[in-house]
């Protein structure tokens, strides 16, 4: 079924043209939050709180991200491509991983990094579901002409996907809030090393570098 959808819908040039740069994305999030709003239809107090934490995390990572030299060298070898990130302002996993993607893209001027909001482009989001869910963030690498999908990554490192499956299967008395706190503690300790390894594997598989 998904293959049939892919044949009908894909990321079109006009979507790339409409998509935001990282600076534009952050400006949008900051502006909305200053107005007591966030992206997407859910404008609850909880989502505003998530957005505030996401802003703080992104600012911290923007200042502290360090890229391993081997990964940087690999990124420099990549051919021209478009990196499209599907996200929302309130997404905790996005706040933890997007700054790393941005730093990677800065090593290669032939990588065009752009951002779109999940709930503004549902037909695109539905091309990149995770176990049937609209999980974000998703990083989609496309050829310059948008005809080939080089690789996709997301919505979070594999180890966290497994932890999430285990929690849903058996919380073991743990609340969802406690689980989320453990996830963000993991991100802080890991410092995106796992993300770097997973993206490097994507580069190897897609381009046989």
Main sheet makeup: 4 strands, mixed
Shape: globular
How many helical stretches?
Answer: 10
Per CATH, the superfamily is Glutaredoxin
Structure write-up:
This protein is of the alpha+beta class and 209 residues long. The chain has a single domain, classed as Glutaredoxin (3-Layer(aba) Sandwich), CATH 3.40.30.10. The chain is built from 10 helices and 4 strands. Strand 1, helix 6 (92-105) and strand 2 form a beta-alpha-beta unit. It is globular and about 45 Å long. This is Thioredoxin. It comes from Algoriphagus faecimaris. Pfam families: Thioredoxin_9.
Quick tags:
209 residues; alpha+beta; Glutaredoxin; 4-stranded mixed sheet; 10 helices; 55% helix; globular; disordered N terminus; Thioredoxin; Thioredoxin-like_sf
């Amino acid at each position: 079924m998904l293959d049939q959808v892919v044949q009908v819908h894909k990321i079109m040039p006009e979507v790339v043209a409409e998509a935001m740069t990282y600076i534009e994305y952050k400006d949008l999030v900051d502006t909305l939050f200053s107005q007591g709003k966030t992206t997407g239809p859910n404008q609850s107090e909880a989502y505003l709180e998530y957005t505030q934490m996401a802003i703080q995390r992104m600012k911290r990572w923007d200042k502290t991200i360090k890229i391993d030299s081997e990964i940087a060298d690999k990124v420099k070898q990549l051919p021209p491509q478009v990196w499209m990130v599907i996200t929302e302002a309130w997404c905790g996993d996005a706040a933890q991983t997007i700054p790393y993607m941005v730093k990677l893209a800065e090593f290669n001027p032939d990588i065009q990094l752009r951002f779109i909001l999940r709930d503004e482009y549902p037909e695109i989001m539905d091309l990149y579901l995770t176990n049937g869910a609209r999980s974000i963030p998703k990083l989609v690498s496309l050829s310059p002409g948008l005809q080939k999908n080089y690789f996709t990554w997301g919505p979070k490192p594999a180890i966290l996907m497994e932890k999430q499956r285990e929690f849903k299967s058996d919380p073991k008395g743990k609340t969802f809030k406690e689980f989320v706190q453990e996830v963000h503690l993991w991100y802080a300790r890991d410092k995106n090393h796992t993300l770097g390894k997973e993206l490097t594997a994507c580069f190897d598989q897609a381009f046989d570098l």
